[in-house]
Design goal:
Blueprint: H1 5-10, H2 21-25, E1 34-37, H3 49-56, E2 60-64, H4 77-90, E3 93-99, H5 111-127, E4 131-136, H6 146-166, E5 169-174, H7 178-188, E6 193-198, H8 199-204, H9 209-216, E7 221-228, H10 240-250, E8 256-260, H11 268-282
Parallel strand pairs: 1-2, 1-8, 2-3, 3-4, 4-5, 5-6, 6-7, 7-8
Helix pairs in contact: 5-6, 6-7, 9-10
Length: 286
């Protein structure tokens, strides 16, 4: 199903609107919201993630969406109400959802994974959410597996019309390089399927993350993970000031979601307070 850009924007994806000329020229005036993954702050798919995020000073949280019947299963309207209440009480928004469950139940192989992603689209529509991370790691890794990549295209093509109708984006997070990502996106042919770009995954895979982000561009990167391995943000090999510059260059205005970036032996909350301060100062984020 081919979808015109103006129709897709009318479906509710306002973050795809073009940035002002001034915001592109005066990068220091750009404002971002800063969040973290619920699993990174020790609260995987748990409502306490909101209070921990508030303690850290985050604007939002990326919320996990797992198996049916798990604790805090968002398929349940009562759980959704509890999450809305927690968000309102703490002032911490839901930045996006994430299906890390696909690292154990591979989307490319297990039919139930397609059903779960379809259910997630329904939940996102009910919650007013726009982005879900669709993970392809561990058992779900499709790097160097063209047959599985083709199956992912087929499965996403089945779900893309529903995602378009709901006004949501399915964000692929994987170890694939930019060429493979683009081949999948072009194969699906829907603006409802984009890339969830993790700078550490790509950097440590040996890719030129700056060239990749430029090639994908604002309209094919739905959200960003700012991550480092074994270091706090800004204390490892990844050049975050250059990431800031490239995101400004392509006009990205979405959430900045912190993942990982802890030091061995240190309290996670303390690490994330430092990470949050670093990101807000570097990106001039509110």
């Amino acid at each position: 199903m081919q979808f015109e850009r103006r129709e897709f924007m009318a479906a509710g994806l306002g973050f795809l609107s073009l940035p002002s000329v001034e915001s592109l020229i005066q990068g220091a005036e750009r404002k971002y919201k800063v969040g973290a993954c619920d699993w990174s702050i020790g609260k995987w798919q748990h409502i306490d993630a909101f209070s921990v995020a508030r303690e850290i000073g985050l604007d939002g949280i990326q919320v996990s969406f797992g198996r049916p019947g798990d604790d805090f299963d968002l398929r349940d309207e009562k759980v959704r109400q509890d999450y809305r209440r927690a968000s309102s009480d703490t002032g911490v928004e839901i930045a996006s959802l994430a299906m890390g469950i696909f690292n154990d139940v591979p989307f490319a192989v297990e039919d139930v994974a397609v059903d779960w992603l379809s259910q997630c689209i329904d939940v996102m529509a009910a919650m007013g959410q726009k982005i879900v991370l669709v993970a392809f790691f561990a058992k779900g890794d499709i790097r160097g597996k063209p047959d599985l990549q083709e199956e992912v295209i087929r499965r996403l093509k089945r779900l893309a019309p529903k995602a378009e109708q709901a006004g949501v984006i399915l964000g692929i997070e994987s170890y694939l390089n930019v060429d493979d990502h683009l081949r999948i996106l072009d194969g699906v042919g829907s603006p409802a399927v984009q890339v969830y770009y993790d700078v550490a995954n790509m950097h440590y895979s040996g890719y030129d993350i700056f060239a990749e982000m430029r090639r994908l561009g604002r309209e094919r990167i739905c959200q960003i993970h700012l991550k480092e391995l074994g270091h706090l943000l800004g204390q490892g090999p990844i050049d975050f000031p250059k990431i800031r510059d490239v995101l400004g260059e392509i006009g990205y205005q979405g959430w900045l979601i912190i993942e990982g970036a802890t030091e061995k032996g240190r309290d996670v909350v303390d690490c994330y307070k430092e990470n949050c301060r670093f990101v807000k100062e570097l990106f001039a984020a509110e």
